[in-house]
């Protein structure tokens, strides 16, 4: 153990991790506790180094491995479960995604980690999956980090931030079964020159469209 980290501190981290694991296992009943516990585990780096109640000293250098490793050495969960339990807390989702980002040059996980994969499959019947929000946050971190503070504070949605950064085209819903309603929707959202261009395209035979 590092002299800078007293044994009682390492054991306290394990207690925090056990509470988080129990919250994840409790499903809907753990929704109130999981986000706060997870944020604490991430911000304090508790998942990297702790001592279990069996006096096992555990070290992780990969957050994904910590998630999938069975208790008491990890959470025995999946990325998908973690994200679902967090819900719409964009700031926490961004923090999770930062910890899950694989450092440049780090190899992807292999099929050798059979124990963790079997445990996750049996316990949650799902493997980690990405989400639209997570993918959007990754794009913003890479291409428009200046917008992230507004997103994590809730002042700007991920979708609007992507549009503002030019990383996603703006879309609207148009009721195609009602021509007048469709036209009204387009008039509300398109500039006059865009409406003129659209009218010209609609007037042309289909084969003439580029």
How would you sum up this structure in a few lines?
The protein is mostly helical and 210 residues long.
Q: If you compute it from the alpha carbons, what radius of gyration comes out, rounded to the nearest whole angstrom?
A: 23 Å
Instruction: Give the SSE string.
Output: HHEEHHHHHHHHH
Class of secondary structure makeup: mainly alpha
For the termini, the CA-CA separation is 67 Å
State the total count of DSSP E strands.
2
Helices, by number, come to 11
Strand order of the largest sheet: 1-2
Instruction: Identify low-pLDDT runs.
Output: 107-130
User: What does the overall shape look like?
Assistant: elongated
Mean pLDDT equals 83
Q: What helical percentage do the residues reach? A: 40-55%
Beta-strand content estimate:
under 5%
The biggest sheet amounts to: 2 strands, antiparallel
